[in-house]
Amino acid sequence: MTSSPSAAPPLDAATFEVLRNRLWAINDEAVDAIVAVSGSPIATEGNDFNSGILTAAGEMALAGPYVLVHAAALGQVVRFVIDHFGDDSGIGPGDMFITNDTYVGAPHQPDVMVVAPVFRGDQLIAWCGSCVHQNDVGGPVPGSVTVGASSIYEEAVPMAPTRIVEGGELLADVEAVYLGRSRTPELNRLDLLGQIEANRVVASRLSGLCDRYGTDTVVAVLDALIDRTEAAVRARLETLPDGRWRHRGLVEHDGIEDRVYEIGLTMTKRGDSLHLDFTDASPQAPALVNTSRAITSSYAMAAVMTVLGYGLPWTPAAFWRVMDIDTQPGTIVDCQWPAGMSMGVTAAGQEVRTAVNICLSRIFDASDDPAVHSQILASCVSGSFTQTISGSFDDGRDFSAMLLDGLPGGSGARWGGDGPDAGGYLTSPAGLCTNIETNEQHYPVLYRYRKERADSGGPGRWRGGVGVEHAYLLHRAAGTATSTVFAHGQQPPTAAGVVGGEPGMQPTGVYERSPSAEIEVPPPKQVGRLAPGDVYANLCGGGGGVGDPLDRDPAAVEHDVAEGLVTKDGANRDYGVVVGDHAATGALRATRRRERIGHDPVAPLDEPPLGRRLSSAVVLANRRYLCRRCGHDHGPTAEPLVSLLTLSRSSVDERTPWPSARPGADRFELRRLCCPACAVQVDVQIALADAPLLETAELL
């Protein structure tokens, strides 16, 4: 194998733009190939996949707009293959390699990756690959997310990177080993063939580009795409203030015990680079909810790319280059063998993504540039109440499925705009929820409804997007089905708000048992039963809000009420709005502000005081913290700002239905921090009741 040359020929602007866009189109063709061949609704309708094109060295140059952590992980897998196959057994034209090894880079075991080198003659010029979530990859339970596992040996044991195509020929023995692990081998084989075809499409199209423009030119465009995007990212970072910003995420229940795992991030921005320190994390869980360092890094990069990379090409390698990540081995974000990770992609991984999202938004909030403020973004829904069901149809056929009803949660609000309702995950921008009709066609379920979940969006000056609520009953099944639910963020809300905005409502699942109509709320992780006639409802969480909810335009609240996105009670409770009565709204908001600080608030200033901006609410002047709204002197910067603000504590269940049915939620509290003079809400934190306040911002 010969690598591509290191010296790139000069590129004119026109050629670069033509080939850059052609490469994106080729990557899209690869996705089309997967969808055309696959028979799994997870791929064909849920878009739970991604594809990418990489350099010969394994740097990710292009990522599709689907599940970004899938694309982020491809580079790690390719580099593993280069390191372990490059010398001993060789890497040749037409070869492909498969893995779902979470310690190498697969987000969790159901995410299967197939990567391939691209050759021109004997010269390696690039790599390509894809990752597709499989219906089942083995292990003790259908769907391969194992609630109750105490190690990875009790989950689906991952398959190390293995050559599955050699010289263009599918290796039947390796394919048999891979498919033999699954309860759904037919679907998995279709996905595998789709991924193989996708790689062949990329190789063929790249060969055509090389015929027309020359191999050196095509290779140079891949390298230049990374180099130029990196330069743009570094230039953007240079314009932002230097400092340290912090966030703490929470994951409850590890599938065995209802323990709480914390994930602390300290993000330091200096000059044109970022340092992400995740060493402040709880010790690893036995299984289920962990992430490896590889997965943590992929989630962190995907979050940086989506939040910081606005308007720039989604070129993962460029963002990898500006980031430095620290983790502590043996923690929930850097677990060591034999810790399991079958749910880590929707547990610790989501909290990593949220932490990066929130810290970057706090950096934007500290900027003096109003254009940067428009990029402030609260967290999208951070956890989903995902469910797998398995059993038999009434005609004897077996079924096993992971339903994607938990995906359409609300997206986070942005400075100047509400979050998209049912917008889903930030790092899965093209992810979709499977159509009701598709689920009813493939599985023994009959849906009662799918609708928007009122009041689920995080309150703020700009409201977080609301989530979706679904309900179905078991239909045409032969007796009772196994229903496994796995979620995090059911007890503490994890879709964080920013700039004084509040978190989105927690996701949850609810059973209505037949024929009694008794309501049962399962814990975050449970292997349960669903009998014919039982109804299961999945209530998606909402996105976080931005800004003080009492600053929201009452007319916007009334519009939300008219649209069914906020209830009248929610308008009163969350925004201080009495629908249809502006005078009563003004009086209620005045009362709420008095309640926050214990006295009448002072009037705001016409202009904020001079000083170095720390956030929308605080400036630094003469080594003192001053309120930007009213000018109040909070105190010396030698003291933590959080100790100088007015603090109120309340239950995390104050907005959530069925609080008494969710044991464990009383361990957490909602902390609101306000200016003691004008009562503007500065920050909102979710924490364990005995945890210290978090100092979230510190300028350097």
Number of strands: 29
State the helix count: 14
Helical content class: 25-40%
Shape descriptor reads: globular
CA distance, first residue to last residue: 48 Å
Major sheet description: 8 strands, mixed
Task: List the uncertain runs.
Answer: none
Radius of gyration over all CA atoms, rounded: 25 Å
How would you state the average pLDDT, rounded? 94
Strand content: 15-25%
Q: Determine the structural class based on helices, strands and strand pairing.
A: alpha+beta
Describe this structure in words.
It is built from 14 helices and 29 strands. Helix 5 crosses helix 6 and helix 7 runs parallel beside helix 9. The protein has a domain at 2-232. Strand 18 (508-513) and strand 19 form a beta hairpin. Helices cover 28% and strands 24% of the residues. By secondary structure, it is an alpha+beta fold.
Offer a quick outline of the entry.
This protein is α+β, with helices and mostly antiparallel strands. It is built from 14 helices and 29 strands. It starts with a strand and ends with a strand.
Write the layout of secondary structure elements.
Blueprint: E1 2-3, H1 13-37, H2 41-44, E2 49-55, E3 60-63, H3 68-85, E4 96-99, E5 111-120, E6 123-133, E7 162-166, E8 169-170, H4 172-179, H5 185-213, H6 215-238, E9 243-252, E10 260-270, E11 273-277, H7 293-308, H8 316-321, E12 323-326, H9 348-366, H10 370-373, E13 386-392, E14 398-403, H11 436-442, E15 445-452, E16 468-474, E17 481-486, E18 508-513, E19 518-520, E20 525-530, E21 535-539, H12 554-563, H13 568-575, H14 582-597, E22 612-613, E23 618-621, E24 624-627, E25 633-636, E26 646-651, E27 668-674, E28 681-688, E29 697-699
Parallel strand pairs: 1-6, 11-12
Antiparallel strand pairs: 2-3, 2-6, 4-5, 4-7, 5-6, 7-8, 9-10, 9-29, 10-11, 13-14, 13-17, 15-16, 16-21, 17-20, 18-19, 18-21, 22-23, 23-24, 24-25, 26-27, 27-28
